[in-house]
Specification:
The complex is a heterodimer. Chain A is mostly helical. The relative contact order of chain A is 0.12. Chain B is mainly α. Chain B has two domains: 53 residues, no CATH class; 219 residues, MetI-like (MetI-like fold), CATH 1.10.3720.10. Helix content of chain B is 69%, strand content 0%. In chain B, helix 9 runs antiparallel to helix 12. The two termini of chain B are 26 Å apart. Chains A and B meet through helix 1, helix 2, helix 3, helix 5 and helix 6 of A and helix 1, helix 3, helix 4, helix 5 and helix 6 of B.
Chain lengths: 317, 296
């Protein structure tokens, strides 16, 4: 797959002369139009669906974020300008959700998945085959499982009567009710458990592309493991690091099911990240307008990350 | 699983002939790497062990333990049409329908993008790539409000259309990249024989990129099968719910949580996607993957 060359390298049937079997088409306006139509036509089902069900909701989102639309019994909503946004930035619970989303993203995506994924990929370069296969299999299984199932497994793991406390008891370490005392940390670890495989696979692929002569030369020159990692490996895979960080962050920003299953955002709102806050405002408090304003903010942050990601890839598209 | 998904190591000690100290250092390092990996594997395997052991344990609770005996009562209890078969069938209808629609639309759309040169290709592809990484979760509230207005709420087709639209950007992108790998010379013969674009796509290009189509299909299906938020928001009637939503009934509605049954259901519900992943793991493993595919 060479996306780099693709858009220019593929000049398809347009370069083919008129087929001899058919009467040669005169390059009339009519023929040109037909040909252009034939090219656009295959795109239309996808474009229609994308416009109706993706672009449509986004536009609608941008509209109702400025209204006071409610869930029930309202004849028609009215335009309220920036009121929803002003309300949000004065709302303690919103600020709490922003803070928790930040913690969740930094802990689970930047520190957790990314670092652990890189460590696993680096170790796999050196480990023996059976161990590599076993570890890869386990980590990838955690990733392939449906989100809700992963949520239940980690719920059982972190519960007061769960596995983690059983192990801590066994080691004579103090146990605690993780989902109650440190819910945001518990869901962050859950997201690490579920998401690390992606980073591992991306980094494994990147590390495999580093020519072994380079690291071997450095090794013969006496550069230790950490120095080689810092001065040779990391600079060589920086593009993958950027890509991976972006994709991880975007995925983490939109985690809903995992947290919903484990804590419902609670206790209180101690693990209520922005998606859960948005859901609660829109459906428990019936304020669709307000919930959508929060959604729009989330969408804007996501778009920013997405643009950065596009920029990172720009040379390759 | 997925021995295949783990990339091979780069050439090891075979190439040059490093001194004995280097070789022994390598051995120590391999051992250290093995220990490190096994430690992570041990931590990761605990939740998985819980689900496997609890599903056959007559007295399952929340911690990993040796079962009090081996029983298949948990599976017996859940394998009813109410608890398992109807939700799985619902999942199959929603995800199967949406996957089919996604793959057909993506293949059609990828063809002109891959085969014809046009000024619009680049902006279109950039938009697609941009949409790939938007947080879909964020637009679910407006989608709900919109679906209420256009009477698509609580309908299977509503979910299928939305699944398709949210999966299409990535599917088009992947499909186009796979299609670029099919040399256009192979098509030229068909063109001179008077075949049109559709015939050439269906009879020549798609068969040649079978593995690519398989990857797009499996990938779309697996993502939708595991998706909780979309059906949770867009469906209301309990007997329309797919397995990803109905699994929550093990809490709440049925009184005491039967953890053994929850574990058994989790296994039944997860098995299809794990098998499907194994099916494409080799292909993804080679020049992995999402990141790799996105990088092109």
């Amino acid at each position: 797959m060479t996306a780099a060359a693709a858009p220019h390298a593929t000049d398809g049937p347009e370069t083919v002369k008129a087929p001899p079997g058919r009467p040669a088409q005169t390059p009339s306006k009519h023929g040109k139009l037909l040909r252009a139509l034939a090219r656009v036509l295959p795109l239309s089902p996808a474009v229609v669906l994308l416009l109706l069900f993706l672009a449509g909701p986004i536009a609608y989102c941008a509209y109702i974020a400025f209204t006071d639309l409610q869930l029930t019994g309202q004849a028609h909503s009215s335009f309220v300008g920036l009121a929803n946004f002003r309300k949000a930035f004065r709302d303690e619970e919103f600020l709490n959700a922003v803070w928790l989303t930040l913690v969740f993203t930094v802990v689970s995506s930047l520190l957790g998945q990314n670092t652990l994924g890189l460590a696993l990929a680096a170790l796999m370069q050196r480990a023996s085959k059976p161990v590599r296969t076993l570890t890869g299999g386990i980590v990838i299984t955690a990733w392939v499982l449906p989100e809700v199932v992963a949520g239940f497994l980690l719920y059982a793991f972190f519960r007061k009567e769960g596995t983690l406390n059983a192990i801590l008891d066994w080691l004579h370490l103090p146990s605690q009710n993780w989902l109650f005392t440190l819910p945001i940390l518990a869901v962050s670890f859950a997201n690490v458990w579920r998401g690390t495989a992606f980073s591992m696979l991306v980094y494994s692929a990147a590390l495999n592309e580093i020519p072994s002569e380079i690291t071997e030369a450095a090794e013969v020159d006496g550069a230790g493991g950490w120095r080689r990692m810092w001065h040779i490996t990391l600079p060589m895979i920086r593009r993958s690091i950027g890509t991976n960080l972006m994709l991880n962050t975007l995925q983490t920003l939109s985690v809903f099911g995992l947290i919903w299953v484990m804590t419902r955002g609670g206790p209180g709102n101690k693990s209520q990240t922005l998606p859960l806050f948005m859901y609660e405002q829109a459906f428990q408090n019936s304020m669709i307008g307000y919930g959508t304003a929060v959604a729009l903010l989330l969408l804007l942050v996501g778009s920013l990350f997405s643009l950065v990601y596009l920029r990172l890839l720009r040379t390759e598209v | 699983m997925a021995a295949t998904a783990v990339p091979r190591p780069t050439a090891t000690a075979t190439a040059t002939s490093p001194g004995p100290t280097l070789a022994s250092r390598r051995r120590t390092r391999r051992l250290a790497a093995d220990i490190g990996l096994l430690a992570v594997a041990a931590a990761f395997v605990l939740p998985l062990a819980w689900v496997l052991l609890s599903s056959v344990d007559p007295h399952a609770d929340l911690r990993v333990k040796v079962p009090d005996g081996l029983t298949f009562d948990n599976f017996d209890a859940i394998l009813t049409s109410d608890i398992t078969f109807t939700p799985l069938l619902n999942s199959l209808i929603l995800c199967g329908g949406a996957t089919l629609l996604t793959v057909v639309c993506a293949a059609l759309a990828a063809y002109p993008l891959s085969r014809f040169r046009s000024r619009l290709n680049r902006p279109f592809l950039l938009t697609i790539l941009f949409a790939t990484s938007l947080p879909i979760t964020a637009i679910m509230v407006p989608v709900y409000a919109l679906f209420v207005r256009v009477n698509l709420i609580d309908t299977a087709q509503g979910v299928i259309f939305f699944f398709t639209a949210s999966q299409l950007p990535f599917a088009i992108w992947l499909m186009k990249n796979f299609m670029d790998g099919v040399p256009k010379e192979l098509e030229e013969a068909a063109w001179t024989d008077g075949a049109n674009s559709l015939q050439s796509l269906v009879r020549i290009v798609l068969p040649l990129m079978g593995p690519g189509v398989a990857v797009v299909t499996v990938f779309s299906f697996v993502l939708m099968w595991g998706n909780f938020f979309v059906p949770f928001m867009l469906l209301l009637t309990p007997d329309q719910m797919p397995a990803s939503v109905s699994i929550n009934e093990f809490f709440g509605n049925r009184g005491m949580v039967a953890y053994g049954q929850l574990a058994a259901f989790s296994i039944v519900y997860s098995t299809p996607v794990i098998l499907l992943y194994l099916l494409i793991a080799r292909r993804l493993g080679g020049g992995f993957a999402l990141g790799g595919a996105v990088k092109g």
